[in-house]
Amino acid sequence: MSSLFKGVRPYGEDPVDIRVEGEVITEIGTGLEPGEARVYERDGLVALPGFVDLHTHLREPGREDAETIESGSAAAALGGYTAVFAMANTDPVADNDLVVEHVHRRGQAVGLVDVQPIGAVTVGLRGERLAELGAMARSSAGVRVFSDDGHCVADPLVMRRALEYTKGLGAVIAQHAEEPRLTAGAQAHEGANAARLGLAGWPAAAEEVILARDCLLAGQLGARLHACHVTTEGGADVLRWAKARGVEVSGEVTPHHLLLTDERLAGYDPVNKVNPPLREGSDVRALREALAEGVLDCVATDHAPHAVQDKDCEWSGARPGMLGLQTALSVVVETMVRTGLLDWRGVARVMSERPAEIGGLAGHGRPIAVGEPANLVLLDESAEWTVRASELASIAHNSPYDGMRLPGTVVTTVLRGAVTADEGKLA
Ligand code: DOR
Ligand code: ZN
Question: pLDDT tens across 205-234, in order?
Fold first, then answer.
């Protein structure tokens, strides 16, 4: 199988043709002859390494009414992703080798993106006893990221032990930073909007105290820490401080925290309910700057599908979370590219290279160069589209961008030489 992608602009630079044979990029140049190859005329599209999402909730096993590995993989491919890390808060929880191997195999069988399972840090996400981290790392799924996401590993001694173990395994803990004593009953970002709406507040400090504590623990142990969904100006400051001290910490920001603020809560529409919550304009500005600066390493979607009965209900009863895979690129174009904060090299860094490095995922996030695996996304930077939540590939439809016009479209996604999505449809 060979393909020729004509007229594409790697990292937004000069147009070239890219030849792919088998799973590998074999030639880059101008005026390449097709020979036997299937030709894709893609004049002017930006070519980037396929996106890698460090934080995806695929809901399988257990909540196949909200998403499956198949539907989530489809959303990922259509969003320009070639790999996703599947969060462990499934039912049963991915806290042992059997579940992570199942998720991994199912992802391979679907074949649209590489599904790399994340293992739970603690048994049942209960925060008490460490899960079998070694068994998951040694399993055929080769787990390299552990997270209790949805829950914080709140006990400092459990967190310390987890960091010690993962250091030995060459793995990383991805912490959902939320001091639970400070967020008991919380429904919205603590601030003027929550006060006006009568919603109990989720203070910024609940995130920042855990980030600071865990940076100190990781620094002392020489272990690696990854901060899930950093949402506050102070959280970014903690990471900046820790990095300056040489702590091996990385951080992610979600597309929704780069774009949306707690002003969206005025109508009490639970589609805007997410954990951590939408913050204030000053936080959004600080997060964008921290991402441009490299204090935040990557964009991760926290794609969190929820069935209609879990979302279309009163605010306090609704589950937190929003879809993200098919809109991530557009939100990054809107918030980071159109604002001049990132160029296309920067987008490749935050949506592909750094997430692959942090997650220890070989073959992804590689440069567009001869001899490299052909994991690619081709995108139209000048196109715009109107998001229709009901038309997204996910089973659930909880997108906060429904009806919004956004810039930038994914045209073609290529996984190891095979086109997985093309012109808005699965190939
Ligand atoms: O909003 C969220 N949804 N935040 C989380 O941490 C978990 C996620 C989910 O699983 O729905
Ligand atoms: Zn989380």
Answer: 999 999 999 999 999 999 999 999 999 999
Quick one: average pLDDT of 328-351? Answer: 99
The answer for residues whose C-beta is within 8 angstroms of residue 249's C-beta and 6 or more apart is 215, 218, 224, 225, 226, 227, 239, 242, 243
Q: Is the CB of 150 under 6 A from ligand 1?
A: yes
pLDDT at 186 over 90: yes
Distance CA(38)–CA(41), nearest Å, equals 10
**Cross-strand partners of 414:** 376, 419
How many other CB atoms sit within 10 Å of the CB of residue 266?
11
CB 275 near ligand 1, within 6 Å: yes
Q: Is there a catalytic annotation at residue 302?
A: yes
Rounded Cα distance between 405 and 424, Å, is 16
Strand partners, 412: 378, 422
Task: Taking residues 344-369, report their average pLDDT.
Answer: 98
Report how far ligand 2's centroid is from the alpha carbon of 260 (Å): 17
Identify the active-site residue in 148, 302, 312, 402.
302
pLDDT digits (tens, 9 = 90+) for 223-269: 999 999 999 999 999 999 999 999 999 999 999 999 999 999 999 99
The finding on whether 151 has its CB within 6 A of some atom of ligand 1 is no
Q: Which atom of ligand 1 is nearest to the CA of 274?
A: 1
How many other CB atoms are there within 10 angstroms of residue 31's CB atom? 7
Q: Ligand 1: which of 311, 315, 319, 323 to mutate, judged by most atoms within 8 Å of the beta carbon? A: 319
**pLDDT category of residue 1 using cuts at 50, 70 and 90:** confident
Q: Is the CB of 89 under 6 A from ligand 1?
A: yes
Residue 101 to residue 335: CA distance in whole angstroms: 37
Atom of ligand 1 nearest to the CA of 176: 6
Please give the mean pLDDT across all residues of the chain.
98
d(CA 111, CA 159): 35
Nearest to 406 by CA among 327, 340, 339: 327
User: Tens digits of per-residue pLDDT, 120-146?
Assistant: 999 999 999 999 999 999 999 999 999
> Which residues crowd ion ligand 2, with CB under 5 Å?
149, 176, 228
Domains of the chain: 2-46+372-426 (2.30.40.10), 50-359 (3.20.20.140)
Angle at 15 between CA 12 and CA 16, to 5 degrees: 120
Does the beta carbon of 50 sit less than 6 angstroms from any atom of ligand 1? no
